Task: inverse folding
């Protein structure tokens, strides 16, 4: 997948909310990409824009999204539906509300296979049962006849994962899939996804607000702020040598479980920006310790970090060089 | 529970055998009556000036415990002694003078501020209700409270919608402080906030604790934050206490199988550690509080469960220095993970 200069805005009563402002990135085959940022930073809207899964008020005003060489932004509704059904799988945050409470699990799972792949219902159900086994739901044949309310939150999320994988998509977008779950259940789901990944060779985009969660699971991390990517690198690099003031501030402000962090946490002052105006300078500038005049006037572009290891893919959007000053 | 350990410290709240059951109706027409065992026979002390962390997964009864302490829920049975007075036995009218000493900060700063009240009115409300201050002195007190929580004194005439989530939580804290309480229940006060804002609020809570000499019950599911802010920690599971210990003991030397699993489930922002770590993955889900398992409530998910665990109720035993664990098989389990 190749995304170039993507811009998405929402029409609201008083004008527009500029949710995504020029996002470019690529995703390799079987790569797992973590996207991290606070609420309103544009991480979900960016990823939903890829397959135009957006509310009517949203407009993609610029940019290109290529999946296996096919330009998705220009596709007709029908062609786009085919892509959504067979090439891209989705896992949403809240398994309580994203399953239809009136339909049996089996019907919800197999419906896509019947519709998109032209399978017979019997075959589709058989395959659904196999996938339920794969995601660790025991007694799968029996579960197909149950309704969502008969399953716990963790089980429902497993059903969602099975559903996303059923059509053997090349890409799965997981939008905060464990945020609504307890930590012990989150650990189960993370282990499951790690195992499935090895087996299935699927690319995964994992959206989250939790930097700690990504530390053990993805290949590469993108940090977003104010509708833009501010830092990007392979996993280890982000934690060991963060270069953007926002990433640095975020990592410093998280208390650690394994050690006592001392009396006070370091903080990032201020609050996340509202995006009613298209940012003219760096969106993080008002909260940044390293702010210069230039930051307020010119939007920094994502550029390779000076002195970065060649295979780290380390890029930041920042005018300052904060290397010696963390 | 062993009470001798508390002899050298002042106990502010002594909770004994607290039970809170909620009657519910099940079935499509509500024809089946049932009982949710939200909190079942819980005993612990809160010392003056400490922060007691209360952790557990959703549905474990941690918020119900907090609400019961403040008599926002009437406990089904048990006693809650505050400064030697059993709050459970008091009538609402007798309770009122004590209410100003015990306050709460809720999780969601969006729904707990009245959108039609200015910030100043909201903060002055407890002062009015408890008739603590003549009206003409209120603006000055509100201004002082606002500056104490890091807001500008002249925002008192603004409405909640003009503030961000973090600022609203500061306002809620100012409101809780208005009646000069001794004890504040913080019910997940940061979990609705953005990551970059959480640290600000944690620091603020610690600052005002020192300044106002407060005692906290800090309810949260984020264990790293609990480690940072607490002196002692209580771990709950399905309405029961599994383990109580000082912060260093609990995080450095957890004994209960549930605590051990809970601690390894928490991810940490350190890739080397994460790649190496051995996670204890608990199988299954939390059991239903309507029909809790017999014996130890954790036994269906416990790696070390034996036949006896489903028969005997567990008692909190002191294993030394105020470290209490509710597990009969500690000797067999030892240091095994």
Result:
């Amino acid at each position: 997948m190749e995304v170039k200069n993507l811009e998405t805005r929402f029409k609201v009563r008083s004008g527009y909310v500029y949710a995504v402002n020029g996002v470019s990135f690529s995703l390799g085959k079987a790569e797992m990409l973590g996207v991290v940022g606070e609420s309103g930073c544009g991480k979900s809207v960016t990823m939903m824009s890829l397959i135009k899964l957006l509310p009517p008020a949203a407009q993609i005003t610029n940019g290109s999204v290529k999946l296996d060489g096919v330009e998705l932004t220009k596709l007709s509704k029908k062609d786009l539906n085919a892509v959504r059904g067979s090439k891209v799988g989705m896992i949403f945050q809240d398994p309580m509300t994203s399953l239809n409470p009136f339909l049996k699990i089996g019907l919800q799972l197999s419906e896509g296979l019947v519709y998109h792949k032209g399978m017979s219902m019997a075959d589709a159900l058989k395959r659904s049962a196999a996938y339920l086994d794969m995601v660790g739901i025991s007694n799968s044949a029996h579960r197909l006849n149950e309704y969502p309310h008969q399953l716990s939150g963790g089980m429902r999320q497993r059903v969602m994962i099975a559903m996303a994988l059923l059509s053997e998509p090349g890409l799965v977008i997981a939008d905060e899939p464990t945020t609504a779950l307890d930590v012990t259940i989150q650990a189960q789901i993370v282990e499951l996804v790690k195992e499935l990944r090895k087996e299935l060779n699927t690319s995964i985009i994992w959206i989250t607000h939790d930097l700690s969660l990504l530390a053990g699971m993805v290949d590469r991390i993108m940090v977003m702020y104010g509708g833009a990517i501010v830092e990007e690198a392979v996993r280890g690099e982000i934690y060991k040598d963060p270069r953007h003031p926002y990433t640095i501030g975020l990592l410093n402000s998280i208390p650690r479980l394994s050690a006592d962090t001392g009396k006070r946490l370091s903080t990032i002052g201020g609050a996340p920006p509202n995006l009613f105006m298209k940012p003219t300078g760096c969106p993080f500038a008002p909260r940044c310790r390293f702010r210069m005049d230039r930051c307020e006037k010119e939007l920094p572009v994502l550029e390779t970090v000076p002195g970065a290891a060649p295979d780290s893919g380390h890029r930041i959007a920042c005018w300052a060089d904060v290397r010696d000053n963390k | 529970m062993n009470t001798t350990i508390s002899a050298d410290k002042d106990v502010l709240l002594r909770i004994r055998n607290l039970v809170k059951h909620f009657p519910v109706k099940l079935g499509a027409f509500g024809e089946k009556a049932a009982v949710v065992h939200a909190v079942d026979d819980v005993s612990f002390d809160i010392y003056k000036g400490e922060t007691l962390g209360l952790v557990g997964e959703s549905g474990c009864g941690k918020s119900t415990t907090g609400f019961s302490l403040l008599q926002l829920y009437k406990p089904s049975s048990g006693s809650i002694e505050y400064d030697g007075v059993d709050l459970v036995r008091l009538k609402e009218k007798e309770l009122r003078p004590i209410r100003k000493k015990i306050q709460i900060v809720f999780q969601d700063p969006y729904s707990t501020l009245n959108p039609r009240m200015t910030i100043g009115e909201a903060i002055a409300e407890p002062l009015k209700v408890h008739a603590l201050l003549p009206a003409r002195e209120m603006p000055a007190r509100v201004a002082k409270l606002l500056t104490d929580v890091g807001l500008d004194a002249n925002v008192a005439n603004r409405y909640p919608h003009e503030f961000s989530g973090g600022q609203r939580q500061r306002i809620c804290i100012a409101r809780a402080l208005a009646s000069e309480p001794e004890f504040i229940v913080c019910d997940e006060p940061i979990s609705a906030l953005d990551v970059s804002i959480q640290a600000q609020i944690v620091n603020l809570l610690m600052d005002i604790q020192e300044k106002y000499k407060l005692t906290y019950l800090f309810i949260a599911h984020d264990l790293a934050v609990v480690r940072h802010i607490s002196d002692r920690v209580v771990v709950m599971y399905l309405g029961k206490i599994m383990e109580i210990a000082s912060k260093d003991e609990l995080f450095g030397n957890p004994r209960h199988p549930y605590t051990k699993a809970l601690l390894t489930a928490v991810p940490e922002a350190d890739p080397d550690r994460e790649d190496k770590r051995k996670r204890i993955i608990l199988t299954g889900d939390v059991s239903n509080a309507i029909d809790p398992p017999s014996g130890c409530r954790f036994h269906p998910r416990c790696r070390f469960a034996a036949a006896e665990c489903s028969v005997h109720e567990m008692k909190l035993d002191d294993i030394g220095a105020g470290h209490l664990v509710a597990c009969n098989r500690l000797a067999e389990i030892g240091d095994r993970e």
